[in-house]
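This is your field. Have a critical look at the following sequence-structure pair:

***
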Amino acid sequence: MIGCARWRQTELQVLEWVHGQTPRSAVRCAQMVTTLGETPVAWAAVGASCLLTRSGGRAAPIVTLAVAAALRRGLADLIDRPRPPERLWRTEWSGPSFPSRHTTLGTLGAGLVAVNLLRRPGIVAVPVAAAVGISRIVLGVHWPTDVLAGWAFAAAALALSGGRRRNGRR
């Protein structure tokens, strides 16, 4: 238990440092970037990419997103980790903190779209995933480990999905 308390204190110090160092313009930017992890944005992007691809298995990315989103929600409800202190929030939010929904859906959505449409998916997916995750910390609504877990959860879902590229090759 002492290790957990110490880790929680370290995460709080990180959030307080970020809060104190982040200019308002960066907060506004984070508020815009975080929308890439919104549920409707992920669904619309993945759905559109499925319509644009000619390869077989067009529904596979949608199924991956649906299953991963449901599993993430179940995990969040099971763990029910509280969010950081509201004094650090730069946006309104509610619900469990771990793993970060925005980070998970932003990473998974960008990854599925990129794998579906691009020859080199990491060029787009990695920066989007990084930006959404960092935005959640800048906005003060997630602990750093919530974001790390969101990235890991989405990466695992992408790996398990065996994503197909637009030309049908793996």
